[in-house]
User: Which sequence fits this backbone?
């Protein structure tokens, strides 16, 4: 899927992060979402690599990266810690100034990276999310029904872990069917890789990711309430997904000073459902 890319695994910020790197040119960091791995970029990364050096890691807790132990604060899975992983990974690769593209959970890590390390992030592209605080603040019956994972996965250990772990493959299939505008657009080989990596450790780590989102991440956001993302920001989102529930551009304009982007006619998995338009938008932006 990633012809011409090489793989590596390096210890940064106390965890071993698995990554692929390929291409030549200015550096671009691609961060995947839940419940996936770097493989979600298999239709985008090779096209970007014709003009950029593309780095595709697995976030901590996902794929073939380490899933560190957590604690009652959920700090090991805060977006701040995950962002630090990626900053140190890029430093290891000798990149101190780079663009970041994040989908879903990876978008939240990318956002925190831009807030905590503005000197490092040249441009930020965020795919199909709104800020976490908006999800909890703008709840109504329809939204609560569609974002139920923000309440289910945040329950105390080990209720969600046991329920998901009873049949992880079914849970993944159901998730892809629920979120995708066209589930058949997801490559069978990619699906197999997601299933391979969705083991007990990843199930727990991903729950901790969401628990952090509902606790320590919100505390960090409150502490940084006056902060703004100063680099250019590109937004791409699903017209039938979050675009039908939130004012995506308006919410991000509260957080960033330079925002552009548009809705796409697909489901949640933009990079796999509509790779052509996603690549075109990213090339024009980057």
Assistant:
């Amino acid at each position: 899927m990633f012809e011409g890319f090489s793989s590596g695994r390096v210890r940064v910020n106390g965890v071993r992060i698995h990554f692929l790197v390929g291409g030549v040119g200015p550096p671009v960091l691609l961060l995947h979402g839940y419940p996936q791995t770097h493989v979600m970029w298999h239709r985008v990364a090779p096209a970007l690599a014709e003009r950029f050096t593309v780095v595709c890691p697995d976030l901590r807790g996902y794929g073939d990266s380490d899933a560190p132990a957590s604690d009652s604060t959920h700090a090991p899975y805060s977006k701040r810690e995950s962002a630090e992983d990626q900053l140190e990974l890029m430093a290891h690769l000798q990149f101190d100034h780079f663009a970041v593209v994040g989908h879903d959970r990876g978008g939240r890590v990318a956002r925190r990276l831009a807030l905590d390390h503005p000197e490092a992030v040249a441009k930020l592209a965020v795919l199909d999310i709104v800020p976490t605080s908006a999800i909890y603040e703008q709840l109504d019956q329809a939204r609560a029904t569609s974002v139920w994972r923000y309440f289910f996965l945040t329950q105390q250990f080990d209720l969600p872990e046991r329920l998901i772990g009873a049949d992880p493959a079914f849970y993944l299939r159901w998730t892809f069917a629920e979120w995708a505008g066209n589930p058949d657009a997801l490559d069978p080989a990619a699906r197999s890789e997601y299933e391979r990596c969705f083991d007990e450790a990843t199930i727990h780590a991903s729950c901790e990711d969401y628990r952090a989102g509902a606790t320590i991440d919100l505390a960090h956001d409150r502490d940084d309430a006056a902060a703004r993302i100063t680099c250019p920001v590109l937004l791409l989102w699903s017209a039938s997904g979050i675009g039908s529930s939130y004012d995506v551009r308006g919410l991000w304009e509260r957080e960033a000073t330079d925002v552009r982007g548009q809705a796409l006619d697909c489901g949640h998995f933009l990079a796999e459902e509509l790779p052509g338009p996603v690549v075109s938008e990213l090339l024009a932006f980057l």
Notes: The radius of gyration is 17 Å. The longest strand covers residues 15-22. The first helix runs from residue 45 to 48. The chain has one domain: 6-285.
